[in-house]
Specification:
The chain contains 16 helices and two strands. By secondary structure, it is an all-alpha fold. It has one domain (4-321): Orthogonal Bundle (Farnesyl Diphosphate Synthase), CATH 1.10.600.10. Strands 1-2 form a two-stranded antiparallel sheet. The longest helix is centred in the middle third of the chain and has 30 residues, at 123-152.
């Protein structure tokens, strides 16, 4: 097996080779900018890790992994427009640096480029990979639409929210793992379990992201903290606060999330104060741990020797402790 550092280096080298020198420059410069912003490269790493765990040829999984990373960054370009997020990974978002129209068109081009990389693989499993990718792309869009619907919905349940983050975040993480496993030609049972591991870990990941959005250090988080509050996102934290709030807190929460024209910093501070009064951070972290344990259970069910799972155990543990 390969070390995580070795796999990360493979991904970095492949991404460094990406050049977008075609014209018009206004279309391709934002793509280069978006892909040069770094990030953890979690999704392509998971693809290579899954292929490696099942003793597959990681070289055959590299192009699909890069395609999945480009696809992920395409979704971020569009998400930042819809969420009005000014900062991504500590830098201006594409739509802020250029404009929304350029971000939309560059994102669309990234989707096509991602597809080009996904089809650079063995024809024997190309059909299965494209089926996973296409289904995932549709589900990610469904999740984003639910997310936008929730902004104006009067009532959103925690069940609704968990389904939204399953679609918007978790299915792509699960797909990266499944594609790596497909390339390694492991058993259907192993493919199902690594996929379920990714779904549960992806939900835990998003719950952690919700917590970090409110409670992290902005310099470590890489984007403005409190943005979910400022943009009236009905996250797990907000929905749980509605369940636990007293009458006065409930009234204030409704006011902060429905009245326009409020000072953003004051709004973020006041809502965060209510979250602190209710212990919402701890509640959300406990929910995250539930999904983490489900993920580990799926990992344990995979039929390979335990030593080959260690990279995933370490990765899942690091998720529980991340600050950005």
């Amino acid at each position: 097996m390969h070390t995580v550092a070795f796999l990360q280096n493979k991904i970095k080298n492949a991404l460094d080779l990406l050049k977008f020198e075609r014209k018009p420059a206004e279309l391709y410069l934002p793509i280069q900018f978006a892909l040069s912003q770094g990030g953890k490269r979690i999704r392509p790493l998971l693809t290579l890790m899954a292929c490696d765990m099942f003793d597959g040829d990681i070289e055959k999984s590299l192009n699909p992994a890069i395609g999945l990373e480009i696809f992920h960054n395409f979704t971020l370009l569009h998400d930042d427009i819809m969420d009005q997020s000014p900062i991504r990974r500590g830098r201006e978002t594409v739509y802020k640096k250029w404009n929304a129209n350029i971000a939309l068109l560059s994102g669309d081009t990234m989707f096509a480029i991602a597809f080009e990389y996904l089809i650079k693989t063995d024809p024997d499993y190309l059909s299965d990979i494209l089926q996973v990718f296409n289904q995932t792309a549709i589900e990610v869009c469904e999740g984003q639409q639910y997310d936008m619907n929730f902004e104006t919905a009067t009532v959103v349940s925690i069940t609704d929210y968990m389904e939204m983050i399953r679609l918007k975040t978790a299915v792509l993480i699960a797909a990266c793992l499944k594609i790596g496993a497909l390339i390694a030609r492991t058993s259907p049972a192993n493919i199902d379990n690594i996929h379920l591991f990714g779904l549960n870990l992806g939900i835990a990941f998003q719950l952690q992201d919700d917590v970090l959005d409110v409670f992290s250090d902005e310099n470590k988080f890489g984007k403005r903290t409190g943005n979910d509050i400022a943009t009236n996102k009905k996250t797990y934290l907000y929905l749980k606060a509605l369940e636990l709030a007293n009458k006065e807190q409930l009234r204030d929460l409704h006011q902060y999330f429905t009245v326009s024209g409020l000072d953003e910093n004051d709004k973020i501070n006041k809502v965060t104060e209510i979250y602190n009064q209710l212990g919402i951070k701890e509640v959300a972290e406990n929910e995250m741990k539930i999904y983490y344990k489900k993920a580990i259970s799926c990992l344990e069910a995979i039929d390979v020797e335990k030593a080959r799972k260690q990279n995933f155990i370490d990765f899942a543990d690091s998720l529980m402790q991340r600050e950005s």
